[in-house]
Design a protein that fits this description.
- The protein is of the alpha+beta class.
- The protein is built from 15 helices and 23 strands.
- A four-stranded antiparallel sheet has the order 2-3-1-4, covered by helices on one side. The chain has a four-stranded antiparallel sheet with strand order 11-12-6-22. Strands 7-8-10-9 form a four-stranded antiparallel sheet.
- The chain crosses the membrane at residues 7-25, 456-473, 480-502, 508-530, 551-573, 579-599.
């Protein structure tokens, strides 16, 4: 029989539509603006402190929706997003320095939907708000760090070959080594040039002032700087992923800048601290009393500046050798970081500790910082910001080597669980190849996102209304079928994007509007084909069957072509272009399903079981 579906097809359509309805429902429950309270030492706040915050907020006229306790933290949900900043300031003032107050967006999806793993769509930076950072990579520091690493390797090489040298010095693009005699310098030059062919070598001085100067070539400088930016890109992406931000954007801009956009992040201080942290670790041996002074360095402890230790300049390994790191507590309840090294790092650590049993080894915490000073140009009168970079070094642990260490060990001596957690995060994500500085910082508030959402939804509603009216006027009953299928199409699109965790942006909303137009385009092709078949003398049942069968090829060809374009846009595009491509791709697939199966099912149910004299089309 023509225009009949078997039962299993109807069941498939019902199951898909029911699943689409369930997984699109969480989008009707937007996230609640909230403030998050936690103890600065990582433990839970007392209920009396939370009650004091509630009272202070109520006195200031800030509406509280709910108060919840989650994992040693308290979440206070607010009625209005405009009250968030004021609520945070009031809570911070009430609790003082003993607590940390951060902005948050709390999920409002009902528990029964959460039990089905249903969650709302992720909104992009332009809809949800968030932070935009423009970071600048310190290229000179990248060169200095590379030369310092080379200097350490050269010192180890010279000691292994028993060649006497007095000093190594890094300045700009050059690394210089002083020797006791020209003969030692010439021997060293032959050895060093074999292992470091990328330097230009120059002899300076004579006698006991013999010096070997090694300069980086322009090509090598460019390669180091390009590597520093690319390596920082990878590290920043890892750090952002550790923060749990959905669909962040981390991309290069120009020769030495990186753009980072974090949708939904409202605690900008915490985000800035993690993203911009330039901390790294170095593992060094404590110097012996008879070690020459040019091979040692005296450094203070990080948590006690009155204590210091004399360390070797040579580094055993750095944080770059860490493959994984996690926070935990030792047997006395103090925070520690458990570290696993990669193969090379484990070998170097084992070699150094195996031959130095009973000797102290230090864990050195290194952080690159900058201080901005504002001065006035005497000629123009304009304010000029001068950035002065500096490096902070501090010992966080100095322990005796009891036995040879391998790939796994732990770091103690940390001040708080928060510090241990952040150090573990930085070690997991990798250290930066060069320091970065914040050249620009912008915060997009939720009010702007709400306005964008309102305008985007208005565009969808206007487009949907115009399409519905056109289909009803033009195709009557068949137009009603198309409109019902269009509603299902939009529901499925939202459900799939929610399930995949795709991010909806303003360009993505444009993709939704385009999807609505393309969805009815398939129905227009089918309905016009049915009209044509009826004009050619076919019966109503034959015209319906021929209309769907003969329009199928044209519809699939057109949609596959558009899908290929969307895939190309996603593969080569970034940011907004990807958001548009994702929405368009999903919309094409849902349009094919609703236009070819859902409308056909409704037509079959209406006309398939009885003789039809006239079609309202």
């Amino acid at each position: 029989m023509l225009n009949r579906y078997p039962l299993w097809k109807y069941l498939i359509i019902l199951v898909v539509l029911a699943a689409g309805l369930i997984y699109s429902l969480p989008n009707l429950y937007p996230e609640d603006p909230a403030i998050q309270l936690s103890n600065a030492q990582g433990s839970a706040l007392d209920e009396r402190q939370v009650d004091a915050v509630e009272s202070a907020l109520t006195e200031q006229g800030i509406g509280i929706k709910a108060v919840e306790s989650l994992n040693d933290q308290w979440l206070i949900r607010l009625n209005h997003a405009d009250d968030q900043l004021r609520a945070r300031d009031i809570a911070a003032q009430t609790l003082g320095n003993d607590a940390t107050v951060a902005l948050n967006l709390a999920e409002a999806t009902p528990a029964w939907l959460q039990s089905l793993s249903a969650s709302p769509m992720t909104l992009g930076l332009d809809l949800r708000g968030g932070v935009h950072f423009l970071l600048e990579v310190d290229m000179e520091a990248a060169l200095t760090q590379r030369l310092e690493v080379n200097a350490s390797a050269i010192r180890e090489l010279l000691r292994g070959e028993r060649i006497r040298y007095r000093n190594t010095e890094v300045e700009g693009r050059t690394l210089s080594v002083d020797f006791a005699s020209p003969e030692d310098r010439d021997t060293a030059r032959r050895l060093i040039s074999r292992d470091f062919p990328n330097f230009e070598y120059t002899n300076e001085g004579d006698g006991r002032a013999a010096r070997l100067v090694m300069s980086l070539t322009d090509q090598q400088v460019n390669e180091i700087q390009d590597y520093a930016v690319n390596q920082n890109l990878t590290t920043l992406r890892n750090r952002v992923n550790e923060l749990g931000v959905a669909e962040p954007m981390v991309q290069r801009q120009g020769p030495n800048q990186i753009v980072v956009e974090l949708p939904g992040v409202q605690d900008t201080v915490a985000a800035k601290r993690i993203v911009g942290a330039t901390a790294n670790l170095e593992f060094r041996l404590e110097a012996r009393p008879d070690t020459p002074s040019n091979e040692t360095e005296t450094l203070a402890f990080r948590n006690d500046a009155s204590r210091s230790a004399e360390l070797m300049r040579d580094v055993i390994i750095t944080g770059d050798s860490v493959s994984s790191a996690s926070r935990s507590f030792d047997e006395n309840g103090r925070p520690q970081v458990n570290i696993n090294l990669d193969g090379t790092g484990g070998t170097l650590m084992n070699r150094a500790t195996r031959t130095n049993l009973g000797r102290n080894m230090a864990v050195l915490f290194i952080e690159h910082r900058s201080e901005d000073t504002v001065s006035v140009d005497p000629e123009t009168g304009e304010q000029i910001t001068i950035r002065e970079p500096y490096v902070e070094r501090g010992i966080i642990s100095l322990a005796t080597i009891q036995s040879a260490l391998g790939n796994s060990f732990r770091i103690t001596g940390l001040d708080s669980p928060t510090e241990a957690g952040e150090l573990a995060l930085l070690l997991r994500s990798g250290s930066l190849a060069a320091p970065i500085y914040f050249a620009q910082e912008r915060t997009i508030g939720p009010s702007l996102g709400a306005e964008n959402i309102e305008r985007g939804l208005l565009s969808v509603q206007v487009g949907l209304l115009l399409i519905v009216l056109f289909m009803l006027v033009r195709y009557k009953v068949f137009g009603l079928f198309a409109n019902i299928a269009l509603a299902f199409n939009l529901t499925l699109l939202v459900a799939i994007m929610s399930l995949l965790g795709a991010t909806l942006t303003l360009p993505g909303i444009a993709g939704v509007v385009l999807t609505l137009g393309m969805a009815v385009d398939a129905n227009v092709l089918i309905f016009e084909r049915i009209r044509e078949e009826m004009r050619n003398g076919l019966s109503a049942q034959q015209a319906i069957h021929a209309g769907y069968e003969r329009a199928f090829t044209s519809i699939v060809d057109a949609n596959i072509t558009t899908l290929l374009v969307a895939v190309i846009l996603f593969s080569i595009g970034t940011g907004p272009v990807k958001g548009f491509a994702v929405t368009l791709s999903i919309g094409i697939l849902t349009s094919l399903f609703t236009a070819l199966m859902v409308t056909r099912a409704m037509v079959n149910l209406t006309y398939g079981k009885k003789p039809v004299a006239k079609l309202w089309i």
